[in-house]
Structures are given as structure tokens and as C-alpha cells.
Write a structure and sequence with these properties.
Chain lengths: 240, 490
């Protein structure tokens, strides 16, 4: 579904992202893990054609993202609050996104009805502007908006950050459900190793822009990641 | 401790985004500031001799109208002077006592431009009074009192934050009073004048304004101190969504998606509201051109064409030049959604068209100054609709300044207006109709001038889609640069 080919990005000679190749098949739940500055957001921004890669390209459903715009029809994303329109109420925002994705009000309403628990009665019908919502609630709106119009690719940057425990658990359920759907490819980045191992079938670890691990998730994955990030792995490798 | 405060202020000032403007604009800003200072100073110097020449007693006349001056100052402050609450929040957790923070914040307002700009009027005026033989003690007392009033206004403004109803009623009351005085029905200055005059004549009365200043300052201090909580004085205002679902917009079909957004954009954000208010002011610009008042300066028939384009195009110019910057806060969203650029542009275009038509209708009363003025306005409107709507959108495509929708500041004279490309594009907007009209006027007669301008407008309509395609091309080729620019110093 998504092909990353020889992708690199440098700013003034400093390489912040350098990936040889990653192939993400259709329907996979793909997790991206790494410390701050590892290049997660840069990769997602390249994937969404928000920044130009220095070399290489990304194909989304056989379309090079910087050449065609047709990938926008089947791709939904939430990176940060610049994906929200501050002066709209959540409903207006959902309808706006719905309009752009060919969904009428009724379609959007029926989708939203499934998220009543998730919204915890703090979002719909409150007549508040998005800019006045708390960070967590803004995030909820952004995430749910990506589900409008049955996208085939969903990209979420740090979806668990800023959310309360209940919402984190509910969000995991939502992502797991999407991951079950063999037609939806989900890309998630996170700092939370536990969450990401729970919801993703495959996890790629980035460090300083390079891919250092590519793991198919198994019960041992969490331990492996924890070891890696606590620095133990590096020690053991050096001993070898 | 005060040293640290001052250090913070210093950094806040020199590192603020608005300070990092290009050199050309800095020069222009400095020039503008000097112009303000110069004109206020000239007012101080010139007023004395002007009034004397016109046969009025200068000090008495100034005292007569002082009440209006002070009220106007208060109203202008309310609109412009911001309370220094922004930088306070991080200080709350640091080991500063609260009274100290408040003293610092209020002390900062004392140094505001809003206060000392008055010095450029009062100081030269007072010096001339003394030089002209007015009583030294009297002038000093009067001068002191005036500064007390200015500072009383400064502190009153602390209370006034967000009491819009009060400010509007004061403005309304004084508008009525002013009219009553003009019409000779009631003269408020008959009651206020003796007081201001007594400050000069009986110097001890200066104790009154000084006492009033101390009391207001103390109240302001207490008021501020009591509200130094995140959910009180420092609270972010949360507004209730307004405007309903705009169902009536649906009749515009595919356009309605963007149109709804644009209408909400305009109605719900400070910055865009300022733009609308500004375009109302544009309507009155005609008074400058069409009346005898300034007739001497703007003699020459083509000025009328210029004014016609100006009065009907206020919204068009102030809104259109910032497309797509209006959407800068969520540009990444727009760029990852399946946006039809053409519909996006058409929606903005339609708004400008509607606004231009409304402006034109509102300009009909200018018929008072003659039929040819009305014809000029109608022709100017056609030119605006047919040509200028496209030109401003084209110019906007080159502007990459992010707009902070929630800040009313910077709406006047934004730095981005000094982009060379936009400047070049703005020339035909104004000069085009003037030149066309002049060609017609000087060859055959005014009627041909009108016909040429109107014709240009009508022909312009035909090229709309061509221009749109060009703009879309620019949007696409500038996409990454624009995204990058909008990320900067919002």
C-alpha cells in the first residue's frame, strides 16, 4: 500500500531522515517508535507531501505523493492542531471534513454516534469552538475526523499523548478495530511502547533518522523495545 | 528583582515576532512614528497660534474641548491598548510576591506609548503658553493636571477590559452630546470648561486630579491583584459558538462547503472582524474626494474614479489580499484534504463580489454630490468586480505571512503588504481605472472614460477562470514554501 524508497531529508547538510526502503502492505497496522528527533513526524510529513524529501520518494497506493494528489482521496491524517480549524465547533468541523470526503450530514452523524463514549459528552452539542477545547478533546476531534469517509490509509502522529487513561484505552480499541479491517492501513507513531505494541502488528524503530529495528509484533516485543530504549541492547551488542 | 523583570521585558520586546520585520518596514514604522510625533507636536505648536489667529483664546478653547479629547483618548485606548496580562502567567509560579507582579504589570502600562504620546502635544503647547506670558505656576498646574487625567485614563482602562457595553454607551453618550453641542441644543462644555480652566486660574485645584489619580491607581492595583488567577483576570475567554448551521448557504451547491467556512472565518475571528470594520471606514473615504472639503487637493476629474474604486472595494482589498493567508493556521489540513482549489477560490471570490455589491449599494447616497459621482461609483464597482477581484487574489498567492486570527493587531499596515510582487500587482488596481478614464476623458469626453473603465471590468469577467488557473498553479508550485512560512512565528 505504501512504499518508502531511498527516502532522505536533510536541512542544511544535516540529515534528519534516511530510510533505505519500507514496504507497508495493505491492511497492516504499522507502528513507528523513536525518541524525540528520531524523524517520526518528518516521515509522516513526507508521507503527506507537506515537506519535500531531499532524495527518494514515497508511493501511496502506487501514486507518488509529490506528483499526484489522488492519494488524498483515500488517506486521512491527524498530525497536530494545525489540522483543526479553530473557529469551528466540533460538529461543523466534522461536517466540513465530511463534505470534502463526499459524506453527507447523515453519514457523519451515524459515524459520530459510534463515538459517544469516546467523546465522554464533552464535545458534541457544547457549542464551543475547537480553539477553546482542551488539548485532549482537540485530539479526540482530530482523530475521529480521520475516520470520516472510510479512508484506506489512516495516519496518526502521537495519538495517545495528552489523552486521559480511559480515552487511551478506548482509543486502543478503536485502532485495534481498524487494524482488524484488512482494507485499512493504519500508521501510528508513539512514545508509549506498551500502547504501540498492543495495537500494531509491526513496529519500526527510528533513531536519528535511521531505521534500527523492524519487528513483527509478538509477546516478546514489548520487552525487546524496553531493553532497546533503556540502552541495554546497545551494551550487549558491544559485548558481542 | 526589578532587574529581572526588566530583563524579561527587554527580551520579550526584541525577540517578538513582530519586531523581526524587514528593514524596509522598520524604516517605514519609524517614519510613521515620527510622523505621529511630528503631527502631534505641530498640533501643540500650531494650535496656539492657529486659535489665536482665528480669534479664540487658546487655553480657554483647549479647555473647552478637553472633555472630548479625554473621552476620545479613553475610547482609543480601549480599542488599542492591551493589558499586559500575557507575560504574567509564567511569573505566578516563581518566587515573586503577587503585589510585586501587579506593580510591575501596572508600571509597564505607565510607560506605554499611549501615555507619553500625549506629551508631544501638551509639552510644546505648555511651553508656548509660558513663552506667551501665561502665568508660569498656572501653566504648570494645568499641565500636571492634564497628565493626571491621561494616567487616570490609563488605569481606568485596566477596569474596562472586556466591558464593551460600557465603552459603547460612553461613546454613544458623547456622540449625542457632541451632536447636541453642534446643533446648539445642549452644551456639555459649559459645565466642564470652568473646571479645566480653574486648574490654570486657581492652582490649588490641581490637588483634585492628583488625588483622583492616586485613588484610581490604587483601585486598579486592588482590582488586578484580586484577579491574578488563571480563572479570573488571566482567564482565556471562551466564547459560545454563534451563527447556526448556515443552512441557507447550501443553495450554492459545491461552493457551500467553503463558503460556510469563510463566513464563519469572518464572523468568528477578531482579525477578520477588524477587516470588515475597516472596509466600512473605506466607505466614508469618498467624503474626502467628493466634497469641497478636500476638493482643492484632489482636483482633477480622475480622482473621482480613484475614489470610486476605493469606496466600493474596501472589503475586496483588505480581505482579498490575504487569501490564502486567512487559512494559514490550518493550512496543513487543507493540503492533505482533497481540496478543489477552484471551489476554494470561487468561494472567496463570491464573498468579495457580494461585499463589493453591498458597498456599492451603501455608496448610493453619494448621489448627493452629483449624478456623475454615482456613475463613477457604479463604473468603479464594475471594474472592482471584473478586474480587481482577480488581481487581489493573484497578489495574495504571493503573500506568505501567517495570520493570527485571534489577534486584532497588525490588521493595519501588515508587513506583507510590502512585498514587491504584491506592490507591482496593486498598481493596476488603482491606476488602471484612472488611466482608462483619463484616456477617455481627454479624447472624447467623460462618458468615454466611464465606458472604457466599465468595459475593462466586463472583459475581466471573461478571464476569471484563466486567472484562477494561474493562481492555482502558484499555490501548487509554492506549496512547500507556503507551508514552511505559515509555521513561522505565528
Amino acid at each position: 500500500m505504501i512504499t518508502i524508497h531511498n527516502l532522505s531529508k536533510s536541512y542544511n547538510g544535516v540529515t534528519v531522515l534516511n530510510l533505505e526502503g519500507i514496504e507497508i502492505p495493505r491492511g497492516q497496522a504499522f507502528g513507528l517508535v523513536g525518541n524525540n528527533g528520531a524523524g517520526k513526524t518528518t516521515l509522516f510529513s513526507c508521507l503527506l507531501d507537506l515537506i519535500q524529501p531531499t532524495t527518494g520518494y514515497i508511493k501511496n497506493k502506487e501514486l507518488k505523493v509529490n506528483e499526484s494528489e489522488d492519494w488524498k482521496n483515500h488517506t486521512a491524517s491527524f498530525i497536530d492542531e494545525t489540522f483543526l480549524i479553530g473557529y469551528l465547533t466540533p460538529e461543523e468541523y466534522f461536517y466540513f471534513i465530511g463534505d470534502l470526503r463526499g459524506q453527507n450530514k447523515a453519514d457523519v452523524d451515524s459515524l459520530l454516534a459510534g463515538f459517544e463514549d469516546f467523546f465522554n459528552d464533552e464535545i458534541i452539542g457544547k457549542r464551543k469552538y475547537l480553539r477553546d477545547l482542551s488539548k485532549g478533546n482537540q485530539k479526540k476531534v482530530g482523530i475521529v475526523a480521520t475516520l470520516i469517509g472510510n479512508p484506506e490509509v489512516i495516519i496518526l502522529d502521537e495519538p495517545f499523548a495528552n489523552l486521559d487513561p480511559t480515552t487511551q484505552i478506548r482509543l486502543k480499541e478503536i485502532i485495534k478495530k481498524m487494524a482488524m479491517d484488512r482494507d485499512v492501513t493504519v500508521l501510528v507513531s508513539s512514545h508509549d511502547l506498551q500502547h504501540v505494541t498492543e495495537v500494531c502488528e509491526r513496529i519500526v524503530v527510528l533513531e536519528k533518522g535511521e531505521q534500527v529495528k523492524d519487528i513483527m509484533t509478538s509477546p516478546a516485543t514489548l520487552k525487546e523495545l524496553e531493553n532497546y530504549f533503556s540502552g541495554e541492547q546497545k551494551l550487549s551488542q558491544e559485548e558481542e | 528583582m526589578i532587574k529581572q523583570f526588566i530583563g524579561l521585558e527587554w527580551k520579550a520586546f526584541f525577540r517578538s515576532a513582530s519586531f523581526k520585520v524587514n528593514l524596509a518596514l522598520k524604516i517605514l514604522m519609524i517614519f510613521g512614528a515620527f510622523w505621529m510625533i511630528f503631527s502631534l507636536g505641530m498640533m501643540g505648536v500650531g494650535l496656539y497660534f492657529g486659535l489665536e489667529k482665528a480669534g479664540y483664546e487658546p487655553l480657554a478653547t483647549v479647555n473647552k474641548f478637553m472633555i472630548y479629547y479625554l473621552v476620545a483618548d479613553l475610547l482609543i485606548r480601549y480599542m488599542g491598548q492591551k493589558m499586559p496580562v500575557v507575560n504574567i502567567q509564567p511569573l505566578l509560579l516563581l518566587p515573586f510576591t503577587k503585589p510585586k507582579i501587579v506593580k510591575f504589570a501596572l508600571g509597564k502600562t505607565i510607560l506605554a506609548f499611549w501615555n507619553w504620546m500625549h506629551a508631544f502635544f501638551f509639552v510644546p503647547f505648555s511651553i508656548i503658553l509660558i513663552a506667551q506670558g501665561y502665568s508660569l505656576l498656572g501653566v504648570i498646574a494645568w499641565h500636571l493636571a492634564m497628565f493626571c487625567f491621561i494616567y487616570i485614563n490609563n488605569f481606568i482602562n485596566v477596569f474596562l477590559n472586556d466591558k464593551l457595553w460600557f465603552v459603547i454607551s460612553v461613546a454613544a453618550v458623547f456622540a449625542v452630546l457632541g451632536y447636541a453641542q453642534y446643533a446648539g441644543m445642549f452644551d456639555i462644555t459649559a459645565y466642564t470648561y470652568p473646571f479645566f480652566q480653574s486648574l490654570y486660574e486657581a492652582q490649588w485645584t490641581v490637588a483634585l486630579p492628583i488625588a483622583a489619580l492616586v485613588v484610581t491607581a490604587m483601585f486598579a492595583f486592588k482590582y488586578f491583584l484580586a484577579r491574578l488567577y488563571l480563572d479570573a483576570g488571566l482567564a482565556k475567554k471562551v466564547s459560545v459558538a454563534s451563527g447556526g448551521d448556515l443552512g441557507w448557504v447550501d443553495r450554492f451547491g459545491k461552493l457551500s462547503t467553503f463558503l460556510k467556512n469563510d463566513i464563519r472565518l469572518i464572523l468568528r475571528n477578531k482579525r477578520s472582524k477588524t477587516t470588515v470594520i475597516m472596509s466600512v471606514f473605506f466607505l466614508f473615504y469618498g467624503l474626502l474626494f467628493f466634497t469641497d472639503f478636500a476638493g482643492a487637493v484632489y482636483e482633477g476629474p480622475f480622482w473621482k474614479m480613484f475614489a470610486a474604486v476605493f469606496v466600493t472595494g474596501g472589503f475586496l482589498f483588505s480581505f482579498g489580499q490575504f487569501v490564502p493567508s486567512w487559512d494559514s493556521a490550518y493550512y496543513p489540513l487543507m493540503m492533505t484534504q482533497n481540496i478543489k482549489y477552484k471551489e476554494y477560490l470561487e468561494s472567496k471570490w463570491l464573498l468579495m463580489v457580494v461585499a463589493t455589491v453591498i458597498s456599492t449599494v451603501l455608496c448610493i447616497p453619494y448621489i448627493y454630490f452629483g449624478w456623475d459621482i454615482l456613475i463613477a461609483i457604479l463604473v468603479g464597482a464594475v471594474f472592482n468586480l471584473g478586474i480587481n477581484t482577480h488581481l487581489v487574489l493573484l497578489g495574495g498567492a504571493y503573500i506568505k505571512t501567517p495570520i493570527d486570527l485571534q489577534s486584532a493587531k497588525k490588521a493595519f499596515g501588515d508587513k506583507s503588504s510590502f512585498n514587491l510582487k504584491t506592490l507591482l500587482l496593486s498598481l493596476p488596481k488603482m491606476l488602471g481605472p484612472i488611466v482608462l478614464y483619463a484616456i477617455g476623458q481627454f479624447t472624447v469626453g467623460p462618458w468615454l472614460g466611464y465606458v472604457l473603465v466599465a468595459l475593462a471590468g466586463i472583459i475581466g469577467f471573461a478571464f476569471r477562470d484563466k486567472v484562477f488557473n494561474q493562481i492555482i498553479k502558484i499555490y501548487k508550485s509554492e506549496k512547500y514554501a507556503t507551508l514552511e512560512a505559515y509555521k513561522q512565528n505565528k
